[in-house]
Structure formats: C-alpha cells, structure tokens
Design brief:
Length: about 140
C-alpha cells in the first residue's frame, strides 16, 4: 500500500524488483487475480502491465484500482470530504464514493474495456493454466 509506513518498509522498491524480474522472464507468465489487484502490487504481479502476461484473468471476486479503494477516496476526494461539514453527510459521501470505486474496479467492469482478458469461474483456472502451458510449448 501507499504511505510513509509502507515506503519505510521498502514496498515500492520490492515492487520495482518484481516488475524488473517479470520483464526479464523467459518462462510463460499468466496473471490470475483472485481478490485484489491494486497499484504497483498488481503491476508487479503481472510483470509490469496487465497486458504483459500471456493472459490476464480474474475470478469474479477480483478487484482492481490504483491503490486500496478506501485510501483512493480519502486522498482523491479529500477536498470534497473536508468541504462537507455534517459528519453524517460526510460519512454518506465517503461510503457512496467507495461503493462507486468498488463497482468500477470490479472484475467484470475491468474486463469490459479489455484491461484484462476474461473473468472466469474459479473452477476453470487449472484449465486456463494448462492451455497457456500448451500454447507456450508451441513457441
């Protein structure tokens, strides 16, 4: 995650190392998001880009975003949240904005503009990986 504590623990450097290692892989690479794919972490797991692996998939439970969605609302909508003086209205605004990001970042919505290749039933995962290995063996 983003922030001083995470940065102090070297999260960004570790993500950069993973991205670099992934970019230099000679073995086939497949990306399957089971739950959360946020920011540099998602890119690190996908060798730098969701377009880099042979295929990028998600289970229906997959979520995507530039960072954790609650943090994205806190940072991205800080002025709007601070401008709301009524605490109940501020909470309602925050909850609505978070819900909108969860909707937009859901696996089906991320797949529709082809940011990932498909949303699959978890039971199909093994078949996709086997297919990917067969495809890689032909090249």
């Amino acid at each position: 995650m983003v922030g001083p504590q995470s940065e102090g623990q070297g999260a960004v450097a570790a993500a950069c190392e993973l991205i670099s290692a992934g970019a230099n892989l000679t073995a086939p690479m497949f990306f399957v998001c089971l739950r959360k794919g946020y920011g540099n972490g998602a890119h690190a797991m996908a060798a730098g880009s969701l377009g880099q692996p042979t295929f990028s998939l998600a289970w229906p439970t997959g979520e995507f975003g530039p960072m954790d969605l609650e943090g994205a609302v806190q940072l991205g909508y800080r002025k709007e949240l601070e401008a709301e003086t009524d605490p109940d209205a501020r909470t309602a605004l925050y909850d609505r904005l978070v819900a909108e990001l969860y909707e937009r970042g859901g696996a089906m919505n991320v797949a529709s503009p082809h940011e990932i290749d498909a949303v699959i039933d978890p039971a199909e995962t093994r078949g996709w990986i086997a297919k990917g290995m067969r495809m890689a063996a032909r090249h």
